[in-house]
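Self-study notes.
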Amino acid sequence: MKSLFRVARRVVLAVGVLFCLGFAWPQRFVMPVEGAGRSSFHPESFWYHPWGRSVTHKGVDIFARKGTPVRAATSGLVVFTGELGMGGRVALVLGPRWRMHYYAHLERIDVARGHWLRPGERLGTVGDTGNARGKPPHLHYTIGTLVPLPWQVRPGPHGLRRMWYVDPTPLLNGAS
């Protein structure tokens, strides 16, 4: 029994250290669409309601020509690449502070699951896949968090879900 307690204590300690390291990991942020600037996205589109089938727009659309390179906004581990209904071709990257960076409507994906990205490294290209078909090409960029932010809760549709998302516009406005 003492041995089991020691193992459990070590596991809890290891998880705690790993959790803290996720927050200590520095976040260097770059604009995810090559050549884009503040005029390439609408700063009030994050958490915009009403927004079609998704009800609330949980990210920012960065408009660019089809085929424009999409770069990793920050360092991280590619945890998923593939096709999702509304997102079309997507990539999901686990980055600093336990945040998930979601890149959607990609024309092409240039990285594979398990790849470690550096800030600014090419991830894919801007497209119009998923529910963006027939609309101007753009990157739908969302930052989700694995650690809830209860102070982000707002009244209205999906207001409780707001604690699981980070507004990317301040980062995009200051991006290089």
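Second protein, same conventions, sequence then structure:
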Amino acid sequence: MKDPVIILLAAGSSSRMGQSKQLIKIGDESLIVQTTKHAIQSGMRTIVVLGANEMEHRIAIEKLSADIIKNTDWKTGMGSSLKAGLKYILENDPDVEAIIVAVCDQPLLTSHHLVKLKDLHQSSRKSIVASYYSGTEGVPTLFHKILFTEILNLSDDQGAKKIIQRHPDETITVQFPEGATDLDTPEDLIKFTQELKNRL
């Protein structure tokens, strides 16, 4: 069975953070570099979708072995970036069997978790393999190709969760409590930084 392709969404403007969260340093590396590396280390092809601050973000990851594309319509919402990534994949790899949708503001995401999604899909044959945290399904989530048309028909401001909600019987989950940690605001960053220090 062919491996899924990872679409890493990194196009947002980080308006609530007040600075590019993609470039926030987590240890020695920026968030976008760290997350892109984890995706690549999973062994799966990785597509990074950029939008706001595209040049700075491109420079940060251009030496990594990921495909980088720009969504010129990023302001219209996450759905537009997801669709841009999927269209790019279908143009370049029309035989793709599944995608994994991930975001770059989950600092505790690992390549191991991404591989778990792939492995469960291959063993369960479910069309959707979602991460589970905070009492609900969320990203990263794997979608089989039978759902690609639905994804391409999402409105620009809708995310992948809409697809999950439509297909509860075709969804299986992987526990990912670390997914509840995301960096949207300065307060999130302060809290996460403190938690990192406490672990050391």
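Instructor comment on the second fold: The mean pLDDT is 92.
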